[in-house]
Amino acid sequence: MKLETLKLITSRDNSLLRRARNVRDGKIEDLIFVEGMRLCEEALTSNLDIEVVIHSDHIAQKPRAAKLIAQLGDRAKSSASVSEKLLESISFTKTPQGIVLLAKRPPSDVDNLTKRQPAKPLIVILHETNNPVNVGAILRTAEAAGATGVIATANTADPFSPKALRGAMGSTFRLPVWNGQTFTQALEWCRAQKIQIVCADVSAPTVFSEVDWRKPGALLVGRESSGFSHEELAAADLAVRIPMKGSAESLNVAVATGVILYEAARQRAQN
Length: 271
Description:
Structural class: alpha/beta
CATH superfamily of the largest domain: SPOUT methyltransferase, trefoil knot domain
Mean pLDDT: 94
Number of helices: 11
CATH topology of the largest domain: Alpha/beta knot
């Protein structure tokens, strides 16, 4: 660790802790708030540009944590040690996770998404999906199922918010994400790349397994409560549904996305 940058903080009003709270609350847009051992390890292995490491004096006594703190300290511009109570003052969770880092937000522009696509992309488009837990779960599932990128339209929960990052468990650091553009821009990009746009809709006539997912495709999922408008459904190339039994009317958006993506993965594995 770069010991010359290690600070011992004893005041809740310390400027570094105020900065951490501002990042946590989304008030500093170019930084992200990463909390917990597992997620900080993912940040390290994903080569994030780490600005600050803040850890509790208690967790630093544990071998695994001490090793991680040392590795992060070698990469960060500064690091600080605080009491458990002070860490609680910046923590996003009810129970402090022992370690927090502030890192530069990974690129989330269209150029980064485009240059990282293979010959047959499999994209997930989140349109106004406003629950960050669902957004995080979808990102995690997207990576596991072999999706090649995620587009999050304006009014979708920020994929880089603390709650979404926690749900994604590192997938947000690895998948190319294009964040904040309009619905129309997202679909126009897909068409420019010759990617078929398939939306999920409970009343669609086509079953999701009847689609040829082996060619370039984008799965479009929408709002948790209201789904898509008629105009938005018409803008997609195809709408698909997941057959339902019993009295259930629909699936959670993250679950539905997973079901469809794994059918795409199954088909692509047979190529």
